[in-house]
Amino acid sequence: MLSLLRRITQEVTAAQSLQAALEIIVRRVRRAMRSEVCSIYLVDPNTQDYILMATRGLNADAAGKLSLKSDEGLVSLVGRRAEPVNLEDAHVHPAFHYLSGTGEERYKSFLGVPIIHHRQVLGVLVVQHEERRRFDEGEEAFLITLSAQLAGVIAHAEATGAMMSLTSNTPAGSDFRYKGVAGSSGVAIGKAAVIFPPADLDVIPDRVPQSVEAEVEDFYQALEAVRGDIKKVSSRLSQHISDDEKALFDVYLKILDDNSLAAEIIKKIEEGNWAPGALRQVIKLHISFFEQMEDPYLRERATDIRDLGRRILSHLQEKTPSVTEELTEPVIIVGEELTASMLGEFPLDKVKGLVSVMGSSSSHVAILARAMGIPTVMGAVDLPYSKLDKVDMIVDGYSGQIFTYPSEAIIDSYQQIVDEERQLESEYEQLKDLPCETLDGQRIGLYVNTGLLADINRSLDRGAEGVGLYRTEVPFMIRDRFPTEAEQEQIYRQQLEGFAPAPVTIRTLDVGGDKALPYFPIKEENPFLGWRGIRVTLDHLEIFMAQIRAMIKASAGLHNLKIMLPMISNVAEVEEALALIRRAYAEVKEEGYDVVMPQVGVMIEVPSAVYQAKELAGMVDFMSVGSNDLTQYLLAVDRNNSRVANLYHTFHPAVLRALADIVERTKGEGVKLSVCGELAGDPLGAILIMAMGYNTLSMSSTSLPKVKAVLRKLTMEQAQDMLRQVLPLVHSDAVRQTMMKLVREAGVERLIRPSKTAALQ
Fold first, then answer.
1. Are 385 and 335 in contact (CB under 8 A)?
2. What pLDDT sits at residue 237?
3. In what residue span(s) does the GAF domain sit (predicted)?
């Protein structure tokens, strides 16, 4: 059964359209189960009706035309219950409804199983027989297993836009709405620009070519270039490999010389797709053919086809202007998995908003977007991104919603939010030079998280009182080798001078997990529980000592350096790191530098550090809670995994109680406490953190004015009353909803989000 399931899944995955995938499913399932009927009904996302999309055994002409209401018939019963329905005689069941025009009246036995993806019923897979009989447990188990395997495939196929055409031939003004995760607040209205990594066939979007002739010419030139590459490689290696091994290159050349392959790609271009999109369609189809073959040798040819497809694509992309080169006006950048490096390729004045199919609100690109004030939605797993190039779009970074083909009415509503945001910005500007002080005189330090040189002016312009977190991995990531001690000293000096005399907290190198250095790869099955943060640098003293020496040298004459150690999980790590820092300080002093011993602190990011907070507090000068990682580890949720992004809640009761517990455990230890995760930059989170007793909040420079505006409108007593009301709550949503109600009653809701947003959610 396993091999049969694998073959069916491979065929469906390689299908060129949703309809083709459905036809494969009904044909193969009917044959595999020896049933007389196999049908697939899919849920229309707009009406929630169950549409008969494909069938073998019923009237094929009915496919795509007939449907059942969401409360009508056995099919909808399967969907409502989200579990199988297995009947010996379907006609006698009270929920039976004859769908006229299908020809199903003669079929008695019925087995329907739901197709579920991310808790959402996408449709129902049905098999039927004329005779009265109950499908046995093995048949039911097979269909359930197949349905679970195919759910993701169908969901991905739907995400290419296939469901758009079910209810509307003209998408313009249709307000197609998709849900993701709010990544960075704000609203963006504009056209989408779909971006993709180089030489990756799987993520190439479809695009209408400006000139079919030019696309055909580019394809032929790329084909010839790859032929030349293969011949050069074969010639260069001819002295070092056997004739059998040389034959591989001959196979490549034969595939490239196969006129049918090129002809298929040209045909796809002539049908209205650009060369990279046509190449993707044909290559993936040929890969699927080879992968289904029984012969192991022939199956391996799929790898050859994939390799050649990437080579051709690489040459095509040399000819194709990049998205950045084509930009003439600001756009909303859309991609399957946006990264910080991708964002860095775009001039900021050309970026209106960001949408990423993968990732969560605490992905690094989302953090960077918040720092730059770019409205962002992450984890939009159902977005048909490959079909959205140059499509009108609205990004709602407050609610995590995306609208494609928006109507004039929805555009007008969101334009009002944009206008209100501009008004709020001017109000925030007036607070720049004022302290963050509550109405009853309680002072809170507002610091910034930085990583780039450009952050200095942006942070100072917004009233930052210092740096709560400088991410040293950024200068490490943009090089092709480890920066030297002298290079690091220069980089850190710029940050320390830029903010002097205000304190600058520099975190030691924090790589591993989802942060990789191209020249120092760390490959692990479970990287977030592996070699990262302080574990890496203590294992490589040459890296750690060079970095600490560079930090201390950079502080000469300024004396505003604070050093922070990431990912601390036990006391021994702190003891070892402190000894090394003292040694580095002594060495720098001996060299004649005018330095003082910097304050040293630790990050509280893992549960073990929460429960050893008292002991850690007795060893260091300050402690900073990294709420992003702490949330991840407390909830066992990978913050970059879109499958579980909906489980990542910064307002989870366990997270709030852990934060409050840290304050309780460190009372009387004389240690300063701060929070430097994204929770600190959320005004609702800032209120609660302040009420708990934290001295300092550190956030992106974009979040700082809003947080200051809110805290200056409240008393500490009000904040503590809010904390008392939400700490006993057991649901994350209840915490956020209660906080929104409380800030509304306190008269500060409009400072947190424009008033119009609530009506649109």
1. yes
2. 59
3. 17-164
677 contacts 659 by C-beta, under 8 angstroms: no
Q: How many CB atoms lie within 10 A of CB 245?
A: 12
User: CA 31, CA 34: separation in Å to the nearest integer?
Assistant: 5
| pLDDT one-digit tens code per residue, 144-165 | 988 887 787 777 666 555 444 4
CB 362 within 8 A of CB 631: yes
Sign of CA dihedral 129, 131, 134, 135: negative
DSSP-derived secondary structure letter, 528: G
Q: Looking at the structure, tell me whether residues 88 and 235 fall in a common domain.
A: no
CB-hemisphere CA count at 13 Å for 552?
Answer: 27
What spatial distance separates the first Cα and last Cα of the chain, rounded to whole Å?
Answer: 46
* In a domain? residue 658: yes
**Among 208-222, 223-237, 717-731, the least confident range:** 223-237
Residue 587's Cβ-side half-sphere holds a number of Cα atoms within 13 Å equal to: 14
Catalytic residue, candidates 286, 315, 364, 649 = 364
How far is the C-alpha of 66 from the C-alpha of 61, rounded, in Å?
9
CATH number at residue 224: 1.10.274.10
Token pair recorded at residue 681: 């930059």
Separation of alpha carbons 491 and 391, rounded Å: 41
Is position 381 within any domain?
yes
Cα 285 to Cα 260: distance, rounded to the nearest angstrom:
13
The model's pTM is 0.71
- One-letter amino acid at 284 equals K
pLDDT tens readout for residues 644-692:
777 888 999 999 999 999 999 999 999 999 999 889 999 999 999 999 9
Beta carbons of 601 and 622 less than 8 angstroms apart: yes
> Which residues, at least 6 apart from 572, have a Cβ–Cβ distance to it below 8 Å?
none
Residue type, 529: L
Asked if 531 and 537 touch (Cβ cutoff 8 Å), the reply is no
Q: In whole angstroms, what is the distance from residue 715 CA to residue 411 CA?
A: 38
More confident residue, 477 or 439: 439
Is the same domain home to 379 and 266?
Answer: no
313 Cβ neighbours under 8 A, 6+ residues apart: 199, 200, 201, 204, 222, 276, 279, 280
- Triad 727, 731, 736: Cα angle to 5°: 70
Active site residue 364: yes
Among residues 446, 449, 469, which one has the least CA distance to residue 602?
469
pLDDT at 318: 77
641 pLDDT exceeds 60?
yes
| Residues 101, 132 contacting (CB under 8 angstroms) | no
Nearest to 610 by CA among 593, 589, 626, 594: 626
CATH number assigned to the domain comprising residue 370: 3.50.30.10
Residue 483, preceding peptide bond in cis (omega within 30° of 0): no
Alpha carbon of residue 626 to chain centroid? 20
The full length of the chain comes to: 761
Based on the fold, state whether residues 585 and 663 are members of the same structural domain.
Answer: yes
**DSSP secondary structure letter of residue 520:** B
Answer whether residue 750 is part of any domain: no
For 345, other C-beta atoms within 10 Å of its C-beta total: 12
Q: What percent of the chain has pLDDT over 70?
A: 88
pLDDT at 166: 44
Query: Whole domain around residue 368: which residue ranges?
Result: 176-197+327-406
Would you state the structure tokens that stand for residue 512, as one six-digit string? 């591993």
Q: Which amino acid is at 178?
A: Y
Contact 356, 338 (CB under 8 A): yes
Q: Count of CB atoms within 10 A of residue 127's CB?
A: 28
